[in-house]
UniProtKB/TrEMBL annotation, chains A, B:
One Pfam family cited in the UniProt record for this chain: TP_methylase
Gene Ontology biological process terms in this record: methylation; protein histidyl modification to diphthamide
Catalytic activity, EC: 2.1.1.314
Keywords: Methyltransferase, S-adenosyl-L-methionine, Transferase
Protein task: S-adenosyl-L-methionine-dependent methyltransferase that catalyzes four methylations of the modified target histidine residue in translation elongation factor 2 (EF-2), to form an intermediate called diphthine methyl ester. The four successive methylation reactions represent the second step of diphthamide biosynthesis.
Domain of life of the source: Eukaryota
Pathway note: Protein modification; peptidyl-diphthamide biosynthesis
Residues annotated to bind S-adenosyl-L-methionine: L9, D84, A87, S112, I113, L163, M221, H246
Name listed for the protein in its UniProt record: diphthine methyl ester synthase
GO function term, MF aspect, one: diphthine methyl ester synthase activity
PANTHER family xrefs: DIPHTHINE METHYL ESTER SYNTHASE (PTHR10882:SF0), DIPHTHINE SYNTHASE (PTHR10882)
Family: Belongs to the diphthine synthase family.
CDD domains reported for this sequence: DHP5_DphB
Length: 286, 286
């Protein structure tokens, strides 16, 4: 049996009781660790489970999955995913391959940023499609998210922006020399997201949003130091909401109750940093 | 302190470990029980928590909330919500009132149907706005959901349909006599939802969807007897996926991986019942 277990968003104890019982029954435990990060190091998971945890990085997920599925034909195997396994990142391919091999799959659900974002006070049924924002490089500045935001905005809907995570990216040097060396993991900040959004609006000029558009930064949702700050897009370029993970919401039409929640979370003068002090990304090895 | 704790979707053990530890610390425990239902009776919660659980029905939530918040100023109080507290139903008003009284609030996130629906294999970031479908009566057949589905469909997006739950509805007789008597709790089936959708398409005639539109029934998500069935809207009128809760998805444009998942969940001939044997609703007292 393959247990696909959502870990939730905070620490090792955000697993459900059912999830924990399943993991403790398992002979092998893998942790998917390249599409999100948990706020705690692996050894705290191992201490809670009483099991060794193997980190399944991008290379593993792309190449080692069949080995894991073959194990799951013989014994109980847990595949742990931060948040929920089918929400922000889909693991449908894993389920289909497992079924193809005749391997039973049991999914244990948990919170994902896709629903936890509602903790900021915006109503989930007023969100349109979610979009991903990737780090711009000198040569690659993809802006297709703009069209998705435009579609949502035309309907007055909120847009959840999922910010880039770069884990186990080969360094340029490593690529040149054929070595297995990686860049340090890095995570986009809301400030960088806001700057990229402003740049694309200037280029496209369709007025889908602007400097005064309201947005919400949600950082480390579900962790003890969770931060929620609402402010304008221009202000967001100078907001520091601390370490990863960050997500952001571009706010659509609001209900008075949503306005009250945004007001409760309104950023203060002290939340804004000078341009040269705003972290554009976070380097953190978790 | 007020702990607002999501219980997840299945049984009493779908609470997170952090959630369980918080509830065990609390002096009073309330269960919000009119916007959703858990698959298990209250005494199983009480056995796990070692605490008495007070059911907070509609009347309580509308009239007794301030009493609970005043308690939370003096002691630790848990307010339990099936799924997650801010997802399908928002409890923002509770948070705002608590803050107004100077009461600290801690939110413990969990899975909600709003993200767990992705377990059917449709990608969550391809969903537009979610809609609620209420039981039609002789005189009240609201069809504003049709416009929301139309907006989603125009963008090729999936629509999550949240089906009506009637708990603690006063009976007509009780209303006439001023008594506190209630109808038995009832829950809409996917078959009834499909019939109502067909009726509205016939009336409105804009071709937003039709008898051949693909849809997915998800029943008792996260419970051991979870059922996922994909079929056409016409077929859905005759599907029986068992007891509550049901939700439904109207499928938009699909990715090949989504097609594979829908195929895996394709309803079989044996899933369809004759017209007169399809339950239009479920009466269940949980």
């Amino acid at each position: 049996m393959l247990y696909v277990v959502g870990l939730g968003l905070g620490d090792e104890k955000d697993i459900t009781v059912n999830g924990l019982e399943a993991v403790k029954r398992c002979d092998k435990v893998y942790l998917e660790a390249y599409t999100s990060i948990l706020g705690v190091p692996k050894d705290r998971l191992e201490a809670l489970y009483g099991r060794e945890v193997t980190v399944a990085d991008r290379q593993f997920v792309e190449q080692g999955i069949d080995g894991m599925l073959n194990e799951a034909l013989e014994m109980d195997v847990a595949f742990l995913v931060v948040g929920d396994a089918f929400a922000a990142t889909t693991h449908s391919d894993l389920v289909l391959r497992a079924r193809g091999l005749g391997c039973k799959v049991k999914h244990i659900y948990n919170a994902s940023i896709m629903n936890a974002v509602a903790g900021c006070g915006l109503q989930l049924y007023r969100f349109g499609q979610a979009v991903s924002i990737v780090f711009f490089t000198q040569t690659w500045r993809p802006d297709s998210f703009y069209d998705r935001i435009k579609e949502n905005a035309a309907l007055g809907l909120h847009t959840l922006l999922l910010l880039d995570i770069r884990v186990k990216e080969p360094s340029v040097e490593a690529l040149c020399r054929g070595k297995n060396e990686y860049e340090p993991p890095r995570f986009m900040s809301c400030a960088t997201c806001a700057r990229q959004l402003m740049e694309v609006e200037e280029l496209r000029g369709e007025g889908v949003y602007g400097p005064d558009s309201m947005c919400v930064a949600v950082a480390r949702m579900g962790q003890d130091d969770e931060v929620i700050k609402s402010c304008t897009l221009k202000e967001m370029c100078n907001v520091d909401v601390g370490g990863p993970l960050h997500s952001m919401v571009l706010v659509g039409d609001t209900h008075p109750l949503e306005d009250d929640m945004l007001l409760m979370h309104r950023a203060k003068e002290s939340d804004f940093l000078p341009d040269d002090e705003v972290p554009s990304q976070y380097l953190e090895d978790l």
